[in-house]
Known about the structure:
This protein is mainly alpha-helical. It has a domain of 153 residues: Up-down Bundle (Butyryl-CoA Dehydrogenase, subunit A, domain 3). The protein is 63% helix and 4% strand. The chain is built from 28 helices and 8 strands. It has a 4-stranded mixed beta sheet, sandwiched between helices. Strands 2-3 form a two-stranded antiparallel ribbon.
Amino acid sequence: MFTMTPAQPDRYFDAKDPSGGSNLGDLPEWNLDDLYPGEDCPELTADLDWLKAETAGFAGDYEGNLAEIDAGGFLNCIQRYEKIETVMGRIMSFAGLRYYQNTTDADRAKFMSDMQGAVTDLSNPLVFFTLEVNRIDDAKLATMLTENKDLARYKPVLDRLRAMKPYQLSDELEKFLHDKSVVGASAWNRLFDETMAGLTFDVNGEETSLEATLNLLSDTDRSRRETGAKALAKVFTKNLPLFARITNTLTKEKEITDKWRNLPTAQMSRHLSNDVEPEVVQALRDAVVAAYPKLSHRYYALKAKWLGLEKLEVWDRNAPLPDDDDIEIGWNEARDIVLDAYGAFDPRLSDIAAKFFENGWIDAEVKPGKSPGAFAHPTVTNVHPYVLLNYLGKQRDVMTLAHELGHGVHQVLAADQGELLADTPLTLAETASVFGEMLTFRKLLANAKDQATRKRLLAGKVEDMINTVVRQIAFYDFECRLHAARREGEQTPDQINALWMEIQHESLGGIFNFMDGYESFWSYIPHFIHSPFYVYAYAFGDGLVNALYAVYEEGDPDFQDKYFEMLKAGGSKHHSDLLAPFGLDASDPKFWDKGLSMISGMIDELEAMEE
């Protein structure tokens, strides 16, 4: 799974033509040898050969037999399955990471497609496993877990598998869906990625990439921000028929699958995979929407005052403050800022993060064809994570580095859980990343040399939190409305645009003018394509971390140890169990208000500076 920062201009500041003459220092590039030395290496061939034999052998040994298996036999079965998953994950991590380094390289794209097809074919004999696990009698499973403590370790995995039991289809249908996935959603995802990577934008007569054009939205020069926004709108609008076709097809495919599975809502599959109750997500959504007036509406009105404007245009939303010095932060300085902030919290945190810089686990330079945005990919638990950035030397890039290193540290700590238990549900996957950002922000704020610097830092953090909380919940609402509308029939580009604009007016408030063409900006956000309803996890993570940080600031003497234990748990515990040691409960609506109050309090401080 690639854990990515939100892909829109909110946190998508990793964009600039690398030929622009920056002095960022030597930016690191991945060394993928820890996965495989190359496409044609004997190690990769050996793993594919092993998978071919082992998946067939696994099916031969266990298919049709799980209902009668004993505890020891079931433990062996799960451990064999886990090893298969590890080898498959290693192959796909290697293929995926190479592809995301240059998505326009035909050879890399072909290699990833070939590996995806091979792994899909090789995993076909495994489809029975989940189906038969869900048919094991409840009492029998409980007895086996009691009898064998090593087997009992896997109870969280089994619980998550069996949560899908009511929505499971026949063996034949499940195998059919598995087989066709490579030419279904995966193919449409690839079309979207390759189309988006190949787009160019006319900026004052110069053809620029998506990344470089998006970067203009945070330029200090207002005319350049306007030029960038209009260039984006022009190209997005031109390509709307294709993006609407992709969106309509994927939402319809999801509707069909959900209908066959009898899933009650389009969002339910995401809630199940996140191991979170729908009512908890609804409480989060309702709390954030209710807070729009005191968060985004209030902040952007304040920003308009700073910029000397009666109304903000959409290209002003991410504008720097008028006195922003727009200092370029070199790579080595960014590294030191983040590692110092991590180390001040706990040296163990900075020690793990330092390995990413020392061992070629980060790819930071902006390059033609490189995947935009940023992500931390855990690969597999017997290797290590890799972090992708598009580093441009802005303060927000430093915060993105802190964010992705938080993911990386989390993934390193959780690796001891093993392949099936290390993967953290999305709702908790943002915990360490957002906490890492908060540590870095607080360090910068404490070292602010004057009131103007403090104001810039606070405003930047508020904007990031609005983009992570308000904007992501707005995106979630957009997806909810879009999927509901699609169930009534195909949606034209104009209809999708209208849904998008409804949400923008609600979430951003009346201080904004919306230029012609802004209605098309939904079209380039990859989460809508790759991971429906993913986006609320960002708001979940931010709210959770704000509450966690409040506990930390209150001086809990055991906080660091509790924090490390939470990260080490990976996906082995439910969010309620992980938060209990801190006295927190995400099912309590007041929990979300606590996190939102932190954002509101920062806006209070900014308003007080105006008095």
